[in-house]
């Protein structure tokens, strides 16, 4: 139990630190925005590049991990989407709810948690999951929201807008560029590699503090019952689905199987709230789900780490 506490508590201690600093107004409301920008545009891309250039293609190519992780995401996503669409008759709001129930915080919590659990040199699964989450999973949500909000636009125009947005996302562009560079067989110059490593080292603590700053912001009013429903699906149902497929259906290295479950058991990331703010739909449910899943995620992640 002490070993589990040593893994989980440092992660959530930094989240609490950010929360307290914001509540005591030591860091202003602008700090959350600016720190998020630093993490998204500099620190996390640098960490991904560092992992990519120091990993082999054979290590990162694990299709079974992809299948297990994404099955868990899409079963929850489309299940919630169908039920809430029928219930509310509002496809945009249903999409936000579905994203809140399935969008794991792979970047801000997943990477540092896996580094503490498995070691900083074994972040391949976490990086792959982060790329899947911010690209494939996020893209599906954006396409559905665009389709519901831009009924006058063609499917081609919608897909084009989504494609441009994804290409501009540094969390997608950085590993793609790093992968292309690795394919050439070249190596980063020592000075550049050290700069990337130093910058990447700031990703985990800054991301966790930024999560705390976000959670300290005023939460919009929303139905507690719906938020609790989404939290249970995120913290309990999704990792159970992934556990079954990772350990009983697909064959993959033990590190990747364990990582798939842990990454699926993560709290909801900030992506759903960002979409809700952008499209003006379901912000209250999204923010409450993120807050509750992060609080209760301490207990559920401890259980999964103990079991695995």
What does this structure look like?
The chain has 15 helices and no strands. The mean pLDDT is 83. The chain is mainly alpha-helical and 308 residues long. It has a single domain, classed as Up-down Bundle (Na+/H+ antiporter like fold). Its main location: membrane. Keywords: Cell membrane, Membrane, Transmembrane, Transmembrane helix, Transport.
**Portion in strands:** under 5%
The helix/strand series, from N terminus to C terminus, equals: HHHHHHHHHHHHHHH
Poorly predicted regions: none
The structural class is mainly alpha
CATH class identity:
Mainly Alpha
Q: Roughly how many Å is the radius of gyration?
A: 19 Å
> Total domains, how many?
1
Lay out the secondary structure.
Layout: H1 2-23, H2 29-53, H3 57-60, H4 63-88, H5 91-102, H6 106-118, H7 124-149, H8 155-168, H9 170-183, H10 190-201, H11 203-215, H12 224-248, H13 254-264, H14 271-279, H15 283-307
Helix pairs in contact: 1-6, 1-11, 1-15, 2-9, 2-10, 2-11, 4-5, 4-7, 4-12, 4-13, 5-7, 5-12, 5-14, 5-15, 6-7, 6-11, 6-13, 7-8, 7-13, 12-13, 12-15, 14-15
Protein name: Transporter
Keywords: Cell membrane, Membrane, Transmembrane, Transmembrane helix, Transport
Transmembrane segments: 38-58, 65-86, 126-145, 166-186, 198-216, 228-250, 290-307
């Amino acid at each position: 139990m002490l070993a589990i506490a040593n893994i989980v508590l440092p992660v959530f201690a930094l989240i609490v630190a950010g929360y307290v600093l914001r509540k005591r107004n030591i860091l202003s409301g602008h700090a959350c925005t600016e720190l998020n920008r630093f993490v998204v545009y500099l620190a996390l891309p640098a960490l991904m590049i560092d992992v990519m250039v120091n990993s082999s293609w054979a290590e990162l190519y694990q299709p079974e991990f992809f299948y297990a992780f994404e099955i868990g995401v899409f079963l929850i996503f489309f299940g919630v989407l169908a039920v809430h669409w029928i219930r509310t008759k509002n496809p945009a709001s249903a999409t936000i709810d579905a994203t809140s129930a399935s969008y794991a915080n792979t970047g801000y919590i997943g990477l540092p948690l896996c580094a503490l659990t498995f070691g900083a040199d074994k972040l391949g699964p976490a990086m792959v999951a982060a790329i899947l989450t911010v690209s494939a999973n996020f893209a599906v949500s954006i396409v559905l929201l665009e389709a519901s909000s831009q009924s006058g636009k063609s499917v081609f125009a919608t897909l084009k807008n989504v494609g441009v947005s994804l290409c501009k996302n540094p969390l997608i562009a950085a590993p793609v560029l790093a992968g292309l560079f690795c394919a050439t067989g070249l190596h980063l110059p020592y000075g550049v590699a050290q700069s990337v490593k130093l910058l990447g080292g700031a990703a985990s603590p800054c991301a966790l503090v930024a999560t705390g700053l976000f959670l300290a912001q005023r939460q919009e009013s929303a139905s507690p019952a719906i938020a609790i429903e989404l939290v249970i699906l995120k913290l309990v149902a999704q990792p159970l689905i992934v556990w079954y497929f990772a350990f009983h259906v697909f064959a993959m290295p033990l590190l990747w199987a364990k990582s798939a479950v842990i990454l699926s058991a993560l709290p909801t990331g900030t992506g759903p709230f960002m979409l809700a703010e952008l499209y003006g739909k379901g912000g209250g449910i999204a923010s409450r789900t993120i807050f509750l899943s992060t609080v209760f995620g301490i207990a559920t992640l401890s259980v999964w780490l103990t079991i695995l």
